[in-house]
From TrEMBL:
SUPFAM superfamilies: CheY-like, Homeodomain-like, P-loop containing nucleoside triphosphate hydrolases
Record lineage: Bacteria, Pseudomonadati, Pseudomonadota, Gammaproteobacteria, Alkalimonas
Top-rank lineage group of the source organism: Bacteria
SMART domains for the chain: AAA, REC
Keywords attached to this entry: ATP-binding, DNA-binding, Nucleotide-binding, Phosphoprotein, Transcription, Transcription regulation
Name this polypeptide is given: DNA-binding transcriptional response regulator, NtrC family, contains REC, AAA-type ATPase, and a Fis-type DNA-binding domains
Boundaries of every Sigma-54 factor interaction domain copy: 150-379
UniProt key word Kinase: no
Taxonomic source organism: Alkalimonas amylolytica
Length: 459
């Protein structure tokens, strides 16, 4: 299984460099090794590298891990899209978490097995190759497996499951609604997998992440030479989804100026690439997702009503986690097992009193936040009982205990939640000195979702 990526391994232990080279060579296009970290920048400037396997400690400063953090930052400054996997000793796990907050994509504990090393690097190199130089995603790299099955036994989730099953069998357009982190992308995957189109691709377009100048070419494609950076013909995401499903995520971000063209394309099932006069057919089932109130946007003249009616044949609303408290133990159990396996930990458990508090916590970031909280607790575990006090510092608001009224009942109303969310975001932005990527990562949000909230709270 050859991979087109170039890997650079940086460690001052030459035996380890030899071992890594032997292990990786058959699987990657090029494996470079470097024992002197001072040459890192010039090495990255000389040749394109997709993956960097970076040690945390070098001889000058044997065990603090600060050198690893320093070289990580240097590498990302030089090449911001580089995927960096940190190599760390078990005792350095908290440092590895810090490295991930600073932009590393993963870490691997030493001593690693060849199989582990390969699996980790291949996982990130396939993410790396999902975009070409036009920012486009090749169709074969698009269908991602969900990290988790869609869990939930509450009445609200059972209703969601029923709707998914019914709608999946049809060709109806589906609009997925719900707050960030409630599982809209997961629901889209479930619909695709349960549909007759499951053999085709599931093409996801994160409309919150597409630059406004590139919307049209991203969706409808372009001809070579249509604009300065159009070095070759590009089919566009609608055509790439042919035979499968197209997920338009963060739909509320489509500029008004393009909404008419999108509507025409969805109605006529053809696209006209930028720079071309010829229409091209596409055959994709449409799922759209948003956490915005599109009707309100229609009312404000920011979203076309006819486009909304075209895409919302079936509406499925993913409930916020705080409204299905009964699902929380199930999710905690699943993610505890998942991350215990991932980090090779065993015997970890959640104290019953913490479990009760976690069930009453408001989870403003929904299931995504819960998964991150469990992951952090597993990584930082020093004893068998997990410590969730970090939820307070990482999420900026205290777990359930602080979300209680003096009488002990739930009192957090919409306005209060907004207040908590705003405060949390402001704290994260301050902590990361305005670095959006790092703040978004710490909050468990996408950059686009964080931007929307910053706009909402005028931060
Ligand atoms: N019901 C669920 N069971 C298990 N995991 C879930 C569930 N819902 C969400 N998750 C997990 O939570 C994370 C966020 O889910 P997802 O990306 O689908 O949310 P989203 O609503 O699309 O968020 P956003 O609006 O920010 O893009 C993912 O890791 C997903 O696997």
């Amino acid at each position: 299984m050859n991979n087109a990526a170039t890997v650079l391994v940086l460690d001052d232990n030459t035996d380890l460099l030899t071992a890594a080279r032997l292990c990786l060579k058959p699987y990657f296009a090029k494996v470079l090794t470097l024992s002197d970290p001072s040459q890192l920048q010039s090495c990255l400037q000389q040749q394109p590298v997709q993956l960097l396997l970076l040690d945390m400690n070098f001889q000058r400063d044997v065990s603090s891990g600060e050198e690893g953090i320093y070289y990580l930052q240097q590498a990302l400054k030089c090449q911001p899209d580089l995927k960096v996997v940190m190599m760390t000793a078990y005792a350095e796990l908290p440092l590895a978490v810090r490295a991930m907050q600073l932009g590393a994509c993963d870490f691997i504990a030493k001593p690693w097995s060849n199989e582990q090393l390969l699996r980790t690097l291949q996982k990130h190199s396939s993410e790396q190759t999902t975009r070409d130089k036009n920012g486009a995603v090749p169709a074969e790299a698009i269908s991602a497996q969900p990290a988790a099955p869609m869990l939930g036994q509450s009445a609200a989730m059972q209703q969601v499951q029923r709707l998914i099953e019914k709608a999946a069998a049809t060709e109806a357009n589906i609009l997925l609604l719900g707050e960030s982190g409630t599982g809209k992308a997961l629901a889209a995957e479930a619909i695709h997998q349960a549909s007759p189109r499951r053999q085709g691709p599931l093409v996801t377009v994160d409309l919150g992440a597409v630059h406004s100048n590139l919307f049209e070419s991203e969706l409808f494609g372009h001809k070579k030479g249509a604009f300065t950076d159009a070095k070759s013909d590009y089919s566009g995401r609608l055509r790439q989804a042919s035979g499968g499903t197209l997920l338009l995520d963060e739909l509320g971000n489509v500029p008004l100026s393009l909404q008419a063209k999108l509507l025409t394309a969805l109605q006529s099932r053809v696209v006209v690439p930028v720079g071309s006069s010829q229409s091209q057919p596409f055959d994709a089932r449409l799922i759209a997702a948003t956490n915005e109130d599109l009707l309100a946007k229609v009312g404000r003249g920011e979203f076309r009503q006819d486009l909304l009616y075209r895409i919302n044949t079936v509406e499925i609303c993913l409930p916020p986690l705080r409204e299905r408290e009964g699902d929380i133990p199930l999710l905690l159990d699943w993610y505890l097992k998942f991350y215990s396996d991932k980090y090779q930990q065993s015997g970890l458990r959640i104290r019953p009193s913490d479990q009760r508090q976690l069930c009453r916590y408001r989870w403003p970031g929904n299931v995504r936040q819960l998964a991150h909280a469990v992951e952090r607790a597993v990584v930082l575990a020093e004893q068998s009982e997990l410590d969730f006090s970090q939820l307070e510092s990482s999420a900026g608001s205290a777990p359930a205990a602080a979300a209680q009224s003096p009488e002990g009942g739930d009192f957090v109303l919409g306005a209060t939640l907004d207040y908590v969310e705003q405060k949390t975001i402001a704290q994260a932005l301050q902590y990361y000195q305005g670095n959006i990527s790092q703040a978004a990562k710490a909050l468990g949000l996408t950059r686009a979702a964080l931007y929307r909230r910053m706009e909402k709270y005028r931060l």
